[in-house]
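Standup notes
- DV: blocked on the single-chain target, sequence here:
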Amino acid sequence: MTGLRYVYAVCRPFGAPLQSALKGVAGDPPRLLGHRGLIAVVSHVPEADFAEAPLHRHLEDLDWLTETARAHQQVIDALTAVTTPLPLRLATVFRDDSGVRVMMEEREADFLRTLDRLEGRVEWGVKVYVEREPDAASEPAAKPASGRDYLRRRRMESRAHEDSWQRAERFAGRLHATLSEHADGARLHAPQNSALSKAPGQNVLNAAYLVPRAQSEEFVELVDRTKGEEPGMRVELTGPWAAYSFVDDSGNASAQESPSAPAGADVGEGGS
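- DV (later): unblocked, structure below
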Protein backbone atom coordinates (compact mmCIF):
# COMPACT_ATOMS: atom_id res chain seq x y z
CA MET A 1 0.00 0.00 0.00
CA THR A 2 1.34 3.45 -0.89
CA GLY A 3 1.00 6.60 1.17
CA LEU A 4 2.73 8.53 3.90
CA ARG A 5 3.88 6.90 7.14
CA TYR A 6 1.94 7.82 10.27
CA VAL A 7 3.99 7.07 13.41
CA TYR A 8 2.21 6.30 16.69
CA ALA A 9 5.03 5.40 19.02
CA VAL A 10 8.54 4.10 19.43
CA CYS A 11 9.30 1.12 21.66
CA ARG A 12 11.68 -1.76 22.15
CA PRO A 13 11.03 -5.04 20.33
CA PHE A 14 8.29 -7.09 21.99
CA GLY A 15 7.03 -10.61 21.50
CA ALA A 16 3.30 -10.35 22.21
CA PRO A 17 1.11 -9.76 19.14
CA LEU A 18 -1.15 -6.74 18.79
CA GLN A 19 -4.89 -7.26 18.44
CA SER A 20 -5.55 -8.94 15.12
CA ALA A 21 -8.46 -6.63 14.22
CA LEU A 22 -6.72 -3.43 15.33
CA LYS A 23 -7.16 -0.53 12.92
CA GLY A 24 -5.17 2.66 12.99
CA VAL A 25 -5.63 6.14 11.58
CA ALA A 26 -7.41 6.14 8.19
CA GLY A 27 -8.39 2.51 8.83
CA ASP A 28 -4.97 1.03 8.09
CA PRO A 29 -3.67 -1.65 10.50
CA PRO A 30 -0.48 -0.65 12.32
CA ARG A 31 2.75 -2.48 11.57
CA LEU A 32 6.19 -2.61 13.16
CA LEU A 33 9.21 -0.99 11.55
CA GLY A 34 12.51 -1.96 13.16
CA HIS A 35 15.79 -0.06 13.25
CA ARG A 36 18.86 -0.56 15.48
CA GLY A 37 17.06 -2.11 18.44
CA LEU A 38 14.03 0.17 18.27
CA ILE A 39 10.56 -0.39 16.82
CA ALA A 40 8.41 2.33 15.28
CA VAL A 41 4.71 1.53 15.13
CA VAL A 42 3.43 2.93 11.85
CA SER A 43 0.59 2.74 9.35
CA HIS A 44 -0.05 4.12 5.86
CA VAL A 45 -2.15 7.26 5.49
CA PRO A 46 -3.23 9.03 2.27
CA GLU A 47 -1.18 12.00 1.14
CA ALA A 48 -4.39 13.76 0.17
CA ASP A 49 -5.24 14.07 3.87
CA PHE A 50 -1.86 14.00 5.61
CA ALA A 51 0.47 16.04 3.43
CA GLU A 52 1.37 19.32 5.13
CA ALA A 53 -1.25 21.63 3.60
CA PRO A 54 -4.33 19.35 3.88
CA LEU A 55 -3.24 18.20 7.34
CA HIS A 56 -3.16 21.76 8.65
CA ARG A 57 -6.68 22.28 7.28
CA HIS A 58 -7.89 19.04 8.88
CA LEU A 59 -6.47 20.02 12.26
CA GLU A 60 -9.03 22.84 12.33
CA ASP A 61 -11.86 20.35 11.74
CA LEU A 62 -12.97 19.17 15.18
CA ASP A 63 -14.82 16.10 13.90
CA TRP A 64 -11.86 14.95 11.80
CA LEU A 65 -9.45 15.64 14.64
CA THR A 66 -11.58 13.71 17.13
CA GLU A 67 -11.83 10.68 14.84
CA THR A 68 -8.08 10.73 14.17
CA ALA A 69 -7.23 11.13 17.84
CA ARG A 70 -9.51 8.21 18.75
CA ALA A 71 -7.84 5.92 16.21
CA HIS A 72 -4.41 7.07 17.36
CA GLN A 73 -5.28 6.35 20.98
CA GLN A 74 -6.62 2.88 20.17
CA VAL A 75 -3.21 1.92 18.84
CA ILE A 76 -1.42 3.42 21.86
CA ASP A 77 -3.78 1.56 24.22
CA ALA A 78 -3.12 -1.71 22.40
CA LEU A 79 0.63 -1.14 22.70
CA THR A 80 0.37 -0.25 26.38
CA ALA A 81 -1.25 -3.64 27.01
CA VAL A 82 1.78 -5.54 25.69
CA THR A 83 4.81 -3.24 26.12
CA THR A 84 6.00 0.20 27.23
CA PRO A 85 5.48 2.60 24.31
CA LEU A 86 6.92 6.06 23.91
CA PRO A 87 3.97 7.84 22.26
CA LEU A 88 4.69 10.42 19.59
CA ARG A 89 2.64 13.51 18.90
CA LEU A 90 -0.69 13.14 17.19
CA ALA A 91 -0.22 13.46 13.41
CA THR A 92 3.51 12.72 13.25
CA VAL A 93 3.95 11.88 9.56
CA PHE A 94 6.92 10.94 7.37
CA ARG A 95 7.16 10.46 3.64
CA ASP A 96 8.41 6.87 3.71
CA ASP A 97 10.00 4.14 5.84
CA SER A 98 13.43 5.65 5.27
CA GLY A 99 12.32 8.91 6.87
CA VAL A 100 11.06 7.04 9.92
CA ARG A 101 14.35 5.15 10.26
CA VAL A 102 16.35 8.37 9.98
CA MET A 103 14.24 9.87 12.77
CA MET A 104 14.86 6.82 15.00
CA GLU A 105 18.58 6.93 14.34
CA GLU A 106 18.87 10.65 15.05
CA ARG A 107 16.95 10.34 18.32
CA GLU A 108 18.13 6.89 19.31
CA ALA A 109 19.93 7.99 22.50
CA ASP A 110 16.95 10.04 23.73
CA PHE A 111 14.49 7.29 22.90
CA LEU A 112 16.51 4.60 24.68
CA ARG A 113 17.05 6.78 27.75
CA THR A 114 13.33 7.58 28.00
CA LEU A 115 12.28 3.97 27.42
CA ASP A 116 14.64 2.86 30.19
CA ARG A 117 12.99 5.35 32.56
CA LEU A 118 9.44 4.33 31.59
CA GLU A 119 10.01 0.58 31.38
CA GLY A 120 7.32 -1.37 33.21
CA ARG A 121 5.45 1.79 34.23
CA VAL A 122 2.10 3.32 33.29
CA GLU A 123 0.44 6.66 33.88
CA TRP A 124 -2.60 7.21 36.08
CA GLY A 125 -4.52 10.47 36.07
CA VAL A 126 -6.22 11.89 39.17
CA LYS A 127 -8.54 14.89 39.24
CA VAL A 128 -10.28 16.52 42.20
CA TYR A 129 -13.40 18.64 41.69
CA VAL A 130 -15.19 20.95 44.10
CA GLU A 131 -18.91 20.31 43.85
CA ARG A 132 -21.74 22.61 44.84
CA GLU A 133 -23.55 21.64 48.00
CA PRO A 134 -26.84 19.96 46.95
CA ASP A 135 -28.92 21.85 49.52
CA ALA A 136 -27.54 25.22 48.49
CA ALA A 137 -28.20 24.48 44.85
CA SER A 138 -31.75 23.19 45.29
CA GLU A 139 -33.28 25.54 47.87
CA PRO A 140 -34.63 28.82 46.44
CA ALA A 141 -33.13 31.88 48.11
CA ALA A 142 -35.54 34.16 49.95
CA LYS A 143 -35.82 37.70 48.64
CA PRO A 144 -33.58 40.02 50.71
CA ALA A 145 -35.51 42.38 52.99
CA SER A 146 -33.17 45.30 52.31
CA GLY A 147 -30.00 46.35 50.57
CA ARG A 148 -28.07 45.71 53.77
CA ASP A 149 -29.52 42.22 53.98
CA TYR A 150 -28.51 41.60 50.36
CA LEU A 151 -24.92 42.72 50.98
CA ARG A 152 -24.69 40.63 54.16
CA ARG A 153 -25.90 37.56 52.27
CA ARG A 154 -23.38 38.16 49.47
CA ARG A 155 -20.56 38.42 52.04
CA MET A 156 -21.65 35.16 53.63
CA GLU A 157 -21.80 33.42 50.28
CA SER A 158 -18.38 34.74 49.32
CA ARG A 159 -16.91 33.62 52.66
CA ALA A 160 -18.47 30.17 52.30
CA HIS A 161 -17.07 29.83 48.76
CA GLU A 162 -13.62 30.89 49.93
CA ASP A 163 -13.72 28.45 52.84
CA SER A 164 -14.81 25.63 50.52
CA TRP A 165 -12.01 26.42 48.05
CA GLN A 166 -9.37 26.55 50.78
CA ARG A 167 -10.60 23.23 52.13
CA ALA A 168 -10.45 21.77 48.63
CA GLU A 169 -6.88 23.01 48.10
CA ARG A 170 -5.78 21.48 51.40
CA PHE A 171 -7.43 18.17 50.51
CA ALA A 172 -5.92 18.19 47.02
CA GLY A 173 -2.48 19.02 48.42
CA ARG A 174 -2.61 16.15 50.92
CA LEU A 175 -3.83 13.74 48.25
CA HIS A 176 -1.12 14.77 45.79
CA ALA A 177 1.59 14.37 48.44
CA THR A 178 0.30 10.91 49.39
CA LEU A 179 0.00 9.68 45.81
CA SER A 180 3.42 11.08 44.91
CA GLU A 181 4.95 8.94 47.64
CA HIS A 182 3.49 5.84 45.97
CA ALA A 183 4.63 6.77 42.44
CA ASP A 184 7.94 6.95 40.61
CA GLY A 185 7.03 10.36 39.22
CA ALA A 186 4.29 12.99 39.39
CA ARG A 187 3.23 15.89 37.18
CA LEU A 188 0.82 18.70 38.00
CA HIS A 189 -1.15 19.96 35.00
CA ALA A 190 -3.10 23.19 34.88
CA PRO A 191 -6.65 22.78 36.26
CA GLN A 192 -9.29 22.28 33.61
CA ASN A 193 -11.36 25.30 32.65
CA SER A 194 -14.82 24.65 34.07
CA ALA A 195 -16.38 26.63 31.22
CA LEU A 196 -14.82 24.30 28.64
CA SER A 197 -14.86 21.00 30.52
CA LYS A 198 -17.98 18.85 30.46
CA ALA A 199 -17.21 17.59 33.98
CA PRO A 200 -19.39 19.13 36.71
CA GLY A 201 -17.72 21.10 39.45
CA GLN A 202 -14.53 23.15 39.58
CA ASN A 203 -11.24 21.37 39.00
CA VAL A 204 -8.73 21.93 41.81
CA LEU A 205 -6.26 19.08 41.13
CA ASN A 206 -5.25 17.76 37.73
CA ALA A 207 -2.28 15.43 38.15
CA ALA A 208 -0.55 12.46 36.54
CA TYR A 209 1.42 9.74 38.31
CA LEU A 210 4.00 7.33 36.92
CA VAL A 211 3.37 3.99 38.61
CA PRO A 212 5.04 0.59 38.18
CA ARG A 213 2.56 -1.63 36.40
CA ALA A 214 2.94 -4.26 39.12
CA GLN A 215 1.87 -1.73 41.77
CA SER A 216 -1.09 -0.30 39.90
CA GLU A 217 -3.69 -2.26 41.87
CA GLU A 218 -2.40 -0.83 45.15
CA PHE A 219 -2.34 2.67 43.67
CA VAL A 220 -5.95 2.38 42.48
CA GLU A 221 -7.03 1.14 45.93
CA LEU A 222 -5.25 4.10 47.53
CA VAL A 223 -7.16 6.56 45.33
CA ASP A 224 -10.47 4.73 45.87
CA ARG A 225 -10.09 5.07 49.65
CA THR A 226 -10.07 8.87 49.31
CA LYS A 227 -13.39 9.01 47.46
CA GLY A 228 -16.06 10.35 49.78
CA GLU A 229 -13.45 11.24 52.40
CA GLU A 230 -14.08 14.97 52.09
CA PRO A 231 -17.67 16.24 51.62
CA GLY A 232 -18.18 18.28 48.50
CA MET A 233 -15.06 16.88 46.78
CA ARG A 234 -15.14 14.43 43.88
CA VAL A 235 -12.07 12.36 43.04
CA GLU A 236 -11.75 10.91 39.54
CA LEU A 237 -9.18 8.32 38.45
CA THR A 238 -8.31 7.52 34.82
CA GLY A 239 -5.84 5.07 33.29
CA PRO A 240 -3.73 3.19 32.91
CA TRP A 241 -2.30 5.21 30.04
CA ALA A 242 0.95 5.28 28.17
CA ALA A 243 3.19 7.72 30.04
CA TYR A 244 2.33 10.84 28.01
CA SER A 245 3.14 13.21 30.88
CA PHE A 246 6.58 11.76 31.49
CA VAL A 247 8.01 11.81 27.99
CA ASP A 248 10.74 14.25 27.05
CA ASP A 249 9.28 16.55 24.40
CA SER A 250 12.69 16.91 22.72
CA GLY A 251 12.05 13.49 21.21
CA ASN A 252 8.97 14.83 19.40
CA ALA A 253 6.76 12.90 21.80
CA SER A 254 3.58 14.21 23.28
CA ALA A 255 4.04 15.71 26.71
CA GLN A 256 0.39 16.72 26.80
CA GLU A 257 -1.98 15.70 29.56
CA SER A 258 -3.20 12.18 28.99
CA PRO A 259 -6.88 12.13 28.35
CA SER A 260 -9.02 9.54 26.68
CA ALA A 261 -7.29 10.65 23.49
CA PRO A 262 -4.13 12.66 22.90
CA ALA A 263 -4.72 16.25 23.85
CA GLY A 264 -2.52 17.96 21.31
CA ALA A 265 -1.70 17.66 17.66
CA ASP A 266 1.43 18.53 15.75
CA VAL A 267 2.88 17.86 12.35
CA GLY A 268 6.02 15.77 12.15
CA GLU A 269 8.74 17.33 10.01
CA GLY A 270 9.98 14.11 8.49
CA GLY A 271 9.26 14.72 4.87
CA SER A 272 5.56 15.62 4.70
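- Follow-up: Residues 249-272 have pLDDT under 50 and may be disordered.
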